[in-house]
UniProtKB/TrEMBL annotation, chains A, B:
Keywords: Aminotransferase, Pyridoxal phosphate, Transferase. Pfam families: Aminotran_1_2 (PF00155). One of its GO terms (biological process) is systemic acquired resistance, salicylic acid mediated signaling pathway. One of its GO terms (molecular function) is pyridoxal phosphate binding. HAMAP family: DapL_aminotrans_1 (MF_01642). The keyword rRNA-binding does not apply. Its cofactor is pyridoxal 5'-phosphate. The keyword Transferase applies. This is Aminotransferase class I/classII large domain-containing protein.
């Protein structure tokens, strides 16, 4: 039942695909009329017989968007899942793909949101525009919960509607003239947002990489930490730990090397700690635990995977005052301007939820949900281990990175979907370094995870 | 009491200013170490005596951000308001400045949000990632409520966290190589986001304009509709009606001319209809009421000023399938990619609120609140009329545009703040065409509006 519900909600998400199909119309008249001249309506005959106007504006398509390959990964997976549903309408599809939380949000958190919603109907409880940077109390609470030991202050925290939005706002902040490095494999929003901002060259099909991006290969051989001696200097380094998709958390020693590398190169490190609360060994939970990081790093984080806020939308970005551009100008000051111009703050109701998450009861409840997903992770790891597959990640992250050496990851994705009706994520969707791997997410109801693992055992026994 | 509460919430909003002040430190060592070399920590002595490290990254500041003048308008007003509060701690400050809604959200709407929040704690009611484009039901409801007569469909609607965010996403969509035109005066986010994306030249202090933007002057003389024969061709035309700040709504005849102008030039019109529900004459409420607009226009809109959602955050952008780039590629297809890469959908709780807004009861309740603000508008208009000032707008918008011929609008702003403790908005903050005007917002509790008007009468009698 729950599996079916999940299916339905995802099929909604691919609603745009229907629309996207329509540009397959072949236009008979491709003439471009000149700017400044009156362009009449030029009629064309579409295939096969629908009549359409073919008026075109004289605005050129943004060439950076034309560089992007296919769709953004996760909508593409949703599309394939919907196609599978059409083909197998009776299948009990289980999604361990998109990395979407499935467990109810603890009541201590939702009741705070409901309370704030009700208060908005009262004269004293109503509030309009909040600070673009987030409510002072929430910023203070994030600072004291996550950064008290490293001395980051409330006014170095910018509350957002989620890490994905902030990654793009950071790209707008940096502009088109920066170079960037990224873990390979990694969460696709780093690369795609860089392409959109025009920081990259064209996609090179032979190597499956964009020009002008340094791909830092992370493999089982190097313990999923890049060989920095082979990484060229770039302005920006995106680094996600625990990593999505490999599930690998960098150690203190590794992060110390990374911070030193950034410092040596005068680079800015954008550190994504969206999964830090899944860490259960002594790997750092924040880049700011590393001495000197405040002078080189920005940290992006999120309530999504902690509190099940993937739909509620709340996150934050920490930019220390000590982080300066080459001319001495504080990075946070420009980011503040971006936030004030391009954003109006996260929803006040979501912010009330964030505050409840960081209360003692809320925090404990969040950690219980994290613990639940970690048990799922163990079940998935045990399953693939028992089948003789090498698995990585899992320990400090809700993702299991399963190795299928020598196989195409899209092919494995399709095989699993076709034969077990389980949605996973093909490793190559995260970069060429993900080829030969499949990411299995531990976000799911327990019974679905167990059932998926039963089907995996049947398929790969 | 209410006035004081408003003051407190705004003082939070300027919390970043404290931080921003700190870059006034003068660094002793401005040497730039070279990329690739190990830069040691360079100590410097800050003024007057605090010791600070002055390590700088080797990343150049985005030159587009350096072009921006001072702060974004509204945080700047909040800053001046806070300074005024410090100077006059006992003053009863009334804000008719920032355009922020003040009246409670009708219960039919907040209870739908509270219900959705509670449901997130249940197994069946929980939902994670929604569609990036917005929930299907809300998109359908927006389409049927606002666009049924013009034939726009659900999949041409993209739900957002507000118009301001979408304006920036549209700028990212268009990229750096487009030229743009804007009403002068207008909502500053159009120009500022254009500057950030690198579409403009430097700010030219003599004319108070950025290079490479066409400012379309809107004055009492031209009925606040630009003389299009003097406007050069640009790729993008931003147009807000009812206009913020002038409060003027363009007529059907004027908008027909505007659409024809866009068509003649092959331009894309970005039409901001955030105040359309304040229209009470027969001015079009949507650009798509104009024949042919679907081939040239995008419409950005918002629940903020209708439902008091300035803090809840919900809006939408309509991009018709028929809108094509010069190569025939659909604009909406690229915007869909932007939305999927840079955004993860509006908060599901806010979307539940949006759906309630568009229910019969919710819609009526929203219109009642709009009606309340419109009564405020009348009070403000009557006041300035009685004092012999020429006022514009007001009829179809919650803004009154008061003419102070020959005077600096910042000077009038300061005079009003200093002598009446009322916060307004200086017209020149909206562009050079706003000089000599002050915008008075009708968003406020009735008793505050009446009290502000009493003080205006005292000051300008």
């Amino acid at each position: 039942m729950a599996a079916i519900q999940q299916s339905l909600s995802t099929s909604i998400s691919s609603s745009a695909s229907t629309f996207l199909g329509q540009n397959k119309l072949r236009f008979r008249n491709q003439n471009v009329s000149m700017p400044g001249k009156t362009s009449g309506i030029v009629r064309c005959v579409a295939t096969p017989s629908t009549e359409k106007t073919s008026y075109k504006t004289q605005v050129s398509r943004n060439e950076n968007l034309a560089k992007l390959q296919a769709g953004y990964l996760f909508p593409e997976i949703a599309r394939r899942r919907s196609a599978h549903m059409l083909k197998h309408p009776d299948a009990q599809i289980i999604s361990l793909g998109i990395g979407d939380t499935t467990e109810p949000i603890p009541e201590v958190i939702t009741s705070a949101m409901a309370k704030r919603a009700h208060e908005l109907s009262t004269l004293n409880g109503y509030s309009g525009y909040g600070a673009e940077q987030g409510e002072k109390q929430l910023r203070a609470s994030i600072a004291s919960t996550y950064y008290a030991n490293v001395g980051l202050e409330e006014n170095e925290i910018f509350v957002s509607d989620g890490a994905k939005s902030d990654i793009s706002r950071l790209q707008v902040l940096f502009g088109s003239n920066v170079s960037m490095a990224v873990q390979d494999p990694s969460y696709p929003a780093y690369v795609d947002s860089s392409v959109i901002m025009g920081q990259t060259g064209q996609f090179q099909k032979d190597v499956e990489k964009y020009g002008n991006i340094a791909y830092m290969r992370c493999t089982p051989e190097n313990g999923f930490f890049p060989d920095l001696s082979s990484v060229p200097r770039t302005d920006i380094i995106f680094f996600c730990s625990p990593n999505n998709p490999t599930g690998s958390a960098a150690s203190r020693e590794q992060l110390t090397k990374l911070v030193q590398f950034a410092k040596d190169n005068g680079s800015i490190l954008v550190y994504d700690s969206a999964y830090a609360m899944y860490i259960c060994d002594d790997s750092p939970k924040s880049i700011f635990e590393i001495p000197g990081a405040k002078e080189v790093a920005i940290e992006v984080s999120s309530f999504s995977k902690y509190a099940g806020f993937t739909g509620v939308r709340l996150g934050w970005t920490a930019i220390p005052k000590a982080l300066l551009y080459s001319d001495g100008f504080p990075v946070a000051k420009d980011f503040n301007r971006i936030v004030c111009t391009s954003f109006n703050g996260a929803s006040n109701i979501a912010q009330a939820g964030g505050l409840a998450c960081l209360s003692p009861d809320g925090f404990k409840a969040m950690m219980d949900v994290v613990g639940y997903y970690k048990e799922n992770t163990q079940i998935i790891m045990d399953t693939f281990n028992s089948l003789g597959y090498k698995v990585y990640g899992g320990k400090n992250a809700p993702y299991v990175w399963v190795h299928f050496p020598g196989r195409s990851s899209w092919e494995v994705f399709s095989e699993i979907l076709e034969k077990t009706h389980v949605v996973t994520t093909p490793g190559s969707g995260f970069g060429p370094g993900g080829e030969g791997f499949v990411r299995v997410s531990a976000f799911g109801h327990r019974e679905n995870v167990i059932e998926a693992c039963r089907r995996f055992k049947e398929l790969y026994k």
